[in-house]
Amino acid sequence: MKYTTVSIKSFLRMLVTTYKNWIANEPFQMSAAVSYYALFSFPALLIIIIQTVGIFYEKKEVKGKIINEISDVLGFDAATTIEGMLKNVIDQEQSIWIIMIGIITLLYGATGMFIALQKSLNTIWEVKPKPKNELLKMIKDRIFSLGLILVIGFLLLTSLVLTALITATTDWIGTHFPNIIVYVIQIINFILSIVLFTVLFALIFKVLPDVKMKWKDVWLGAFVTTILFSIGKLALGIYFGTTNPGSTFGAAGSVILILLWVSYSSLILFFGAEFTKVLAHKFGSGIQPASYAEKIS
User: Fold this and answer.
1) In this structure, what are the phi and psi dihedrals at residue 31, rounded to the nearest 5 degrees?
2) 170 Cβ partners below 8 Å, 6+ apart?
3) Whole-angstrom Cα distance, residue 155 to residue 235?
4) Do residues 218 and 206 touch, judged by C-beta distance below 8 A?
5) Which of 108, 215, 258, 270 holds its CA 20 to 30 A away from the CA of 33?
6) Which residues on adjacent β-strands are paired with residue 128?
7) So what's the pLDDT on residue 297?
8) What DSSP letter does each residue of 14-38 carry, written as one string?
9) CA separation for the pair 16, 46 (Å, rounded)
10) Cα separation, 105 vs 99, whole angstroms
11) 3-class SS at 250?
């Protein structure tokens, strides 16, 4: 069968199968592990992204974009806490040292989140690395994780440039054309955001786990994951904004919010991975272990 033959009925059946597989793999335990590593990875990740994108774009703009996104989801207090972590990132006199320290931290700590994410995806897709060549495998995983972080930086740069262009265009069009044209441009901006996130999730599904998959088998799953992630982001923003779950933890509230956000986002990602697995087996070429991995018996 082909992906173009997917009916609404079969799509709903696949969602049910996905949910059953998702629950069976204990996603809350896996998301807790990812959020734990993410807490220690967060500062170094942001430093590397800001410094990398800052080569091509104003660092203050990059930092402001990230803080605004965090504030929209986690609230002002959490965004302020993270901004405090990054207060020296845009210090030009220390930028080279920050990059060096950030890279070292990244290789030995920040990529831990991606390694935890990789193990979770391996569990979902029922593969595991072979016992031999563990050192080479570890080096490869760190390089792939670093590559994904740089990809995130590139996608952020692309988003910043496109947003700047669209904002400038919208301001000009707003004074010369009807409002309907402005709305169309805003829709285009939303579509571009969906495309960028779909590319990111497709790369995570294709590159990070120890499997061999064809690109055609990841795109639909990545797109569904993007839609779920966008809905989840909006829902989390409302939830955190109305209930403020971190308030009961006092000074540690911002840290708790970060853990909760990463945990909930990981749950969505794992559901998308389960859905991609179902799609690949039903309509694609399946999921095969890489040369350095094997099926979980």
Assistant:
1) -70, -30
2) 182, 185, 186
3) 23
4) yes
5) 215
6) 294
7) 67
8) HHHHHHHHHHHT-HHHHHHHHHHHH
9) 36
10) 10
11) helix
Please provide the distance, in angstroms rounded to a whole number, between the alpha carbons at the two ends of the chain: 27
d(CA 124, CA 273): 7
Token pair belonging to 166: 């669209």
Indicate the helix (H) or strand (E) that contains 289. strand 288-289
Q: Is the full-model pTM beyond 0.85?
A: no
Range list of H helices, the chain: 8-24, 27-53, 59-74, 76-85, 95-105, 112-124, 134-174, 179-207, 219-243, 253-283
Give residue 95's identity as a one-letter amino acid code: S
> SS3 for 129?
strand
Q: Which residue shows structure tokens 């990463």?
A: 262
Q: Which token pair is 236?
A: 């989390």
Q: Give the model's confidence band at 60: pLDDT under 50 very low, under 70 low, under 90 confident, else very high.
A: confident
Q: How does pLDDT run across 1-55, given as a tens digit for each residue?
A: 555 566 778 888 888 999 999 999 989 999 988 888 877 777 777 777 777 777 7
Please give the structure tokens belonging to residue 90: 């845009």
Cα 166 from Cα 162, distance rounded (Å): 6
**Two structure tokens written together for 277:** 């697995």
> Alpha-carbon Rg of the chain, whole angstroms?
20
Nearest to 86 by CA among 73, 70, 72, 104: 70
Distance CA 193, CA 99 (A): 28
Q: What is the DSSP letter of 290?
A: -
pLDDT of residue 235: 83
Q: Cα angle at 57 between 68 and 104, to 5 degrees?
A: 85
Place of tokens 């998959």: 213
Give the residue extent of every domain in the chain: 3-295
Selection from 220, 233, 241 nearest residue 262 by Cα: 233
Beta bridge partners of 50: none
Q: Which residues contact 15 (CB under 8 A, 6 or more apart)?
A: 275
User: What is d(CA 25, CA 9) in angstroms, rounded to the nearest whole number?
Assistant: 25
